[in-house]
Amino acid sequence: MILEHELLSTFPADTPVPARLVADAVVASGRVLVVLDDDPTGTQSVADLPVLTSWELDDFRWAFENRIAGKRAAAVYVLTNTRSLDPSEAAARNRAVVENSLAAAREAGVELAFTSRSDSTLRGHFPLEPDTIADTAHALDGRPTDGVVIVPAFPDAGRVTIGGTHYARAADGALTPVAETEFARDATFGYANSVLADYVEEKSGGRYQAADAIVLDLGRLRTGTPAESAAAIADALEGATQRTPIVADTVTENDLRRLALGLDEAERRGKKLVYRVGPPFVRGRIGQEEREPLGPDQAVGADAPRHGGLTVVGSHVGLTTRQLEALLRRHRALKVVELDVERLLAGDDAHVAETAERVAADLAVGDVVVHTSRSLVTASNPAGSLAIARKVSGALVDVVRRTLAASRPRFVVAKGGITSSDIAAHGLQIRRAIVRGPMLPGIVSLWEPMEGPAQGIPYVVFAGNVGDDESLADVVEKLSVTMRGAQQQKELIND
Fold first, then answer.
1. Most buried of 129, 165, 353, 495, CB within 10 angstroms?
2. Are 369 and 459 within one domain?
3. 451: part of which helix (H) or strand (E)?
4. With contact defined as beta carbons under 8 Å apart, do 366 and 308 qualify?
5. Share of the chain above pLDDT 90, in %
6. Model-level pTM?
7. Would you give the DSSP letter of residue 250?
8. In the beta sheet, which residues pair with residue 311?
9. Does 481 score more than 70 pLDDT?
10. The pLDDT of residue 15 is above 80
11. Is the dihedral of CA 66, 397, 81, 300 positive or negative?
């Protein structure tokens, strides 16, 4: 068993770093971070930032002109959903985002930096996406990328990097090298290495060598004052050139803030960096405070629809299945509708319409969960498995779109990365939104749609691989409480 405290005993202790130090540095730089999020779950660690599911020039104009609490946002999320695409489609989408964001930034007089946000368990198109971002930006601004900073850690969800090795933390606190978890056996994005420098070499086919990676371990991050460690980090990056892989340890929020100060100093000295990161990096990089989870009254406004709420479950990781079981156990009045994957793959097109009719009817009397059948169906190759996942997600989207036309839910919770992305962009037709904050500590984000048919319906993005067995039930219960209170008040009045 690998114990976290034993690994950390060889490094300096964690010390507080105020978020304001980072925020002030970001303001001084004038830089806005464009976050290309390969599924929508990257927003779960931030609050009060714009989110786009479309990346036309006008969308970026809106994002750069938008003011939240009187200020331009320090980061803009763009939901690319590229984890559900094949490599060529993913590359094309990354290029379009970079091209249009740079064009809008020139109009607004804004300097940009680019972040490729992906999975904290290392699944996704790497190094394709940061390479595409670097190639496109270089072609447009003439500046080559010196380093690709790789920070997949997500401490809130139990993923930490120590000594250059990436781990998943179990409920008992034990650490497992991430390549030994179920995530590394992903049918599309599997891998064999937990040491991040080796992972880079593996996924790049040797184009980037492990020996050439710069490792920013906790010894460098935690030594001295924040200003001293920032200078030490920037010094370590002086030799970065031609997209040198830069691997950073992270265990706490203070580690992220120290890293952010060092990266800011490196950029101030002239380094051009592209980031490949897990969810909390952006919060640390822009100096945003960790937010308390939203309460029921904050999550569901008084003007929300009075029908029941809708929970959509598409993810098939083991944790999601256990969370669904806990939801059904705790929420006895919940109406349950299953979307049969075998019927979909057999070409039973009527099944989708029938499912949507059941969901819309059940919403009139209470909360509903629609979930895919729990037997995971895969193909013999990654491309085939991805095609199956996209077909199933497309069916869920159709169910939600039909349901929305017939009966507006009080809230929508989408469980799973591809699921939540497709539901947002296509099922609910959300083009522009503001992420308002987390539903649980550090995880699970709530979006406020700013226009379109879903305006006024709180939308909750819930990754497939975060939380504990009770987390989905906790979120649905929190969202349902205001409706139950309203129903009880009505009953009292009627009595």
1. 129
2. yes
3. none
4. yes
5. 78
6. 0.89
7. B
8. 369, 413
9. no
10. yes
11. positive
